[in-house]
Every structure is written in structure tokens, then in C-alpha cells.
Amino acid sequence: MIRVGALMSALAFGAVAWADPPAAAPSSDQDKVQGYWKPLQCDYEGKAMMPTDIMKQVTVVFDKDQYHLYFKDSKLDKDGKPIIFRLALASIQFDPSTTPKSITFEFAEGPLKGKKSHGIYELAGNQLKMCYCTTDKPKPTKFESPANSGHFLETWARQVK
After folding, report:
1. Angle (CA) 32 35 63, round 5°
2. Long-range pairs for 78-84 at CB < 8 Å and ≥24 separation?
3. Coil, strand or helix: which one is 115?
4. What is residue 135's predicted lDDT score, i.e. its pLDDT?
5. Predicted local distance difference test score (pLDDT) of residue 22
6. How many CB atoms lie within 10 A of CB 76?
7. 25 in helix, strand or coil?
8. Radius of gyration of the chain (CA)
9. What is the pLDDT of residues 16-64, one digit of tens each?
10. Domains annotated on the chain, with CATH
């Protein structure tokens, strides 16, 4: 009986010793933003960029160092599937060492291909706030988008699948 108990203990210890270690918690802001996000607020130069019902059709996907902006049309294709447009593709860099934290987009396609947009961000739990400029304007220093600034002010909520 003692041998059976010792064998069971050894097997249990072996199973624990050989189990995969738990996944590490995301360490960088870039890791923390990975996934799907929906807009709560999207302003440009102090004005809403789109009505609330249209905002529901917009999604941002952070995939490694890439930023994808999608729009899901309310119309369906000939097969009855939703029509989804990619509005922007950019590489993205987060720099948490600045105050406020900095973000840089470099567009990978379309008319802005190769151009950069600079901004600031704040990540708090499942909300991401970004304030950034058009490609020809200076980086914002505050979370504001006043008239004639060329600044976007956006707040995004993480989507849990």
C-alpha cells in the first residue's frame, strides 16, 4: 500500500513538473492592446466623425505591430455575407517612456502609404484613448482635438470574444 501511495505521489509530481507553465501576462502596451476594439468616441477637430449607428460598424484590430481599421457595411454580398472594407493598414509603435505615452502609425497602403502620424495614448484596462494628428501636423500634447488642429481624439473599448 505504501508503494502505491509513493507511486501516485511520484506520478502527480511528474505531471505538475512537466505541465506547461502558465502564460505570461502581457508585458508591454503593444502586447496589451492585441485584439478587437470598437469605438466609443471618434472626433476630428472637435466634431464627431460619424453618427453612433455608423460607429457600431467600425472595428480596429491590433495584430502584433499592425493596426487594421475595418468598416462592416450594412449591405450583404451576393452570398448573403457582410461586406467588410479595410479602411486603413498601418504599422504601429507604442512608446510608454514619454509623458504622455506616444504612439506612431506608419501607413502601409493607400494614399498615405509611407507617411507617419504621431500621437499620444492612454491605456486603462479595456479602454484605449488616442489623440493623433494628420500626417502633416505636429503631435498633440493633450487629449484634445480643437478646431483647425488636425487632431483626432478617439476612445476605444476592447471587444471580448
Report:
1. 90
2. none
3. coil
4. 87
5. 54
6. 10
7. coil
8. 22
9. 444 555 555 668 999 999 999 999 999 999 999 999 999 999 999 999 9
10. 29-158 (2.40.128.490)
